[in-house]
Each structure stands twice: as structure tokens, then as C-alpha cells.
Specification:
This protein is of the alpha/beta class and about 350 residues long. It contains 10 helices and 13 strands. The strands form 2 sheets. Strands 3-4-2-1-5-7-8-6 form an 8-stranded mixed sheet, sandwiched between helices. A 5-stranded mixed sheet has the order 10-9-11-12-13, sandwiched between helices. The two termini are about 30 Å apart.
């Protein structure tokens, strides 16, 4: 049966639209644009997260070996991004569809104001029938400012825009239960909430042109599905892959979504790098938080405030073994939390509505 999604994020990996020689595969891009146009004509909203700027840059300029890898990447990405967006713009124009360019860095997701500004920009583009083409700003994103890769970025965008589905296109048919190169390995068609320990059989080898391997993809897919968004990992080099995935006519991996999480929870879920404070809780509080019954983080279960925070900031909650339990929005400052640590009958430090639990 076909999937009835209204708002879809499509992530196209560099390994899908780059030829073996490192240059862009314009025919492949055109085929994907044709499918996206057909999906859009059905009245669906499509947001594109596309890699490929570096490959596009490589088609325009030759760089000597005397420059370091970061500088070369910046050069190729800066030139290539213009070429990439022009390619998309030209191809969408044939269908009278406008596309726009949105370049982001990890910093844009760090505070609620930036986050909402970006969300509002994307929403107004969609209201005007424009397809946003989103990519990481590789010109300023270096080292710690970088997303793990565009899979992480696509997951953030899917959560931010309350999409029903995220389709991740790569160069294999999905997640396999063994090494895809070995006979007997098969695609896992459905992953449920219980999840799977992918690291035991997912190859951590990275694609030639991408940064993120399958372990990254499965971790992000699991997180996004937990927030109520279906995730499909499929082979972007196959003909008609997007329409076939939506019609459920092709073998690929689908992460079945859990019930919807609130918008605030979706932001908190992806805010680990933005967390300022760290709070340690006892075993009782950990059990209460992770039980099926909804509960808030109360001061009585706190044993230590490890690093300071202000009211309204994201904090990490860790257990007695320093393992991450979850993330939450602080209802008051670390000063007040220290004062109330271990006390009964005090206001929750993190309300359940603003709590995101790992696992």
C-alpha cells in the first residue's frame, strides 16, 4: 500500500549524484528532479537536503596538492554550491517549479530563536510552493562546527518541520543484516521501536565521497522515528526510486515511527551539542524517568549539579555511571537546583513535556 505522506524531506547523498571520477552526475540529478516534480504535482510538500557542492566545484576548477584538505574543501564547496543550485534551479524550471537555496551550520540549531527563524523561513517557502534546497555551509563549517554529515542535518530539518517522512537516498538498497558484499546478506525491510544493535553488522566503512557511514544513518533514523517521523533508507541510483518508495514497491529499509512528539521535544532531542548544564541523578530518578509512566525530573532524585546552567537552557541528565539518560529544558537555574538538591516537594527541574530520553 502507498504511503500517504503530505510533507516529505528528501536527502540526496553525494554518493548518489557523484560519478566514480568525482564529478557530478547531472543525468542522475535530472532523473531525481523529474520524480520530485511528479511528487510535488500530487500536492505534496517536498524539502530537499542535497550534498554535491564539492563534486560540482571539482568540475569547475583544479586544485593543486599544496593546499590542505580543509582549504580545498572550502574552495570547492564555495564555487560548487553556485553550480549545484543552478543545476537544480534550471531542472526545476522545466516544471515551472521554483527552488531556493538554504545554507546552514550547526550553530543555527543551537538556540531557540535561531531555530524558529529558520523554521519560519522554510515554512514561508513551502507556503509559496517553493522547494527549499538545503545544504551545510561548508565554507564556514569546519571541524567542530560541522554536522556529522547531511543525514544529521536532514534529521534536524525533518523534526523542525514536523514532516511525516524522511527519505535518505544512498548508493545501497538499505540497511543489511550483514556485509552487503557477502552472499546471504539481506535488506532489513522494517525497523521497529525496539531497535536493533546495528553496530554488530553494519559496516562502518564510509562511502568514497560522503562523511557518514551506515551506522550514522541508522542512529539518526532511529532518533527521527522515535519523534514520530517515518524514515526510509533507499538506493538513490535506482530508476524511479522516490516514486517507488512512496508507492511501497521497492525493497528498502523503513524505520516505523513512534507516536508524534511535541515541537519543543523535537528541538530538545537534537540539542545535545547545545546543552550547557549537566545534572546527575540517582538510580530511582533514572528508573522513574525511563519507565513507561510520564514523569518529570524532581530535585529529590538529583545527586549532583556537575555544570552550571540558566533557566530555559538545555541540560544533560546523566546517571550515577555518567551515562546520558536524556536532555531537558531547565525550569530554573543551577543555583536554585543546588539549593533544592535531594529535597522532596519541590518544583520539577525539567517538566515531562520538555524532556527527551535516550534509547
Amino acid at each position: 500500500m502507498a504511503f500517504k505522506y503530505q510533507r516529505i524531506i528528501i536527502k540526496i547523498g553525494s554518493n548518489v549524484i557523484t560519478k566514480p571520477n568525482g564529478l557530478p552526475d547531472v543525468e542522475r540529478i535530472e532523473h531525481l528532479v523529474n520524480q520530485i516534480a511528479a511528487i510535488k504535482k500530487q500536492g505534496k510538500e517536498v524539502i530537499l537536503v542535497s550534498s554535491g557542492a564539492v563534486a560540482s566545484g571539482r568540475s569547475l576548477i583544479t586544485v593543486t596538492d599544496k593546499f590542505d584538505a580543509v582549504a580545498t574543501r572550502q574552495l570547492l564547496a564555495s564555487i560548487g554550491q553556485v553550480k549545484l543550485i543552478n543545476t537544480y534551479s534550471h531542472l526545476f524550471e522545466k516544471f515551472d517549479i521554483l527552488c531556493s537555496q538554504v545554507l546552514v551550520t550547526k550553530e543555527d540549531f543551537r538556540d531557540r530563536l535561531h531555530y524558529l527563524n529558520m523554521k519560519n523561513c522554510l515554512e514561508i517557502l513551502l507556503q509559496h510552493q517553493v522547494i527549499p534546497v538545503i545544504n551545510e555551509n561548508d565554507v564556514v563549517s569546519v571541524t567542530e562546527l560541522m554536522f556529522t554529515d547531511n543525514d544529521e542535518l536532514a534529521g534536524l530539518i525533518a523534526s523542525m518541520l514536523n514532516a511525516q517522512a524522511l527519505i535518505v537516498l544512498t548508493n545501497v538498497d538499505g540497511i543489511y543484516d550483514g556485509d552487503p558484499k557477502l552472499p546471504g546478506s539481506a535488506v532489513i525491510n522494517e525497523v521497529t521501536e525496539a531497535g536493533i544493535d546495528f553496530s554488530s553488522f553494519v559496516s562502518s566503512g564510509r562511502s568514497q565521497f560522503g562523511r557518514g557511514g551506515m551506522i550514522t544513518k541508522s542512529t539518526i533514523a532511529h532518533k527521527v522515528a522515535k519523534l514520530g517521523i517515518a524514515v526510509h533508507i533507499a538506493n538513490g541510483t535506482k530508476e524511479n526510486i522516490l516514486t517507488d518508495v512512496l508507492d511501497n514497491k521497492v525493497s528498502h529499509t523503513r524505520f516505523i515511527p513512534r507516536k508524534k512528539a511535541s515541537g519543543k521535544k523535537k528541538w530538545i532531542a537534537h540539542s545535545e551539542t547545545a546543552a550547557t548544564g549537566v545534572v546527575q541523578v540517582n538510580e530511582g530518578a533514572k528508573l522513574a524517568l525511563t519507565s513507561s509512566k510520564a514523569s518529570s525530573l524532581l530535585p529529590v532524585g538529583i545527586i549532583n549539579i556537575i555544570s552550571d546552567f540558566k533557566k530555559g537552557e538545555i541540560i544533560k541528565i546523566i546517571d550515577e555511571n555518567n551515562k546520558l539518560v536524556g536532555l531537558g529544558l531547565a525550569e530554573y537555574s543551577s543555583e536554585k537546583a543546588r539549593e533544592w538538591t535531594g529535597q522532596k516537594n519541590q518544583r520539577p527541574l525539567v517538566h515531562y513535556d520538555y524532556l527527551y530520553l535516550q534509547g
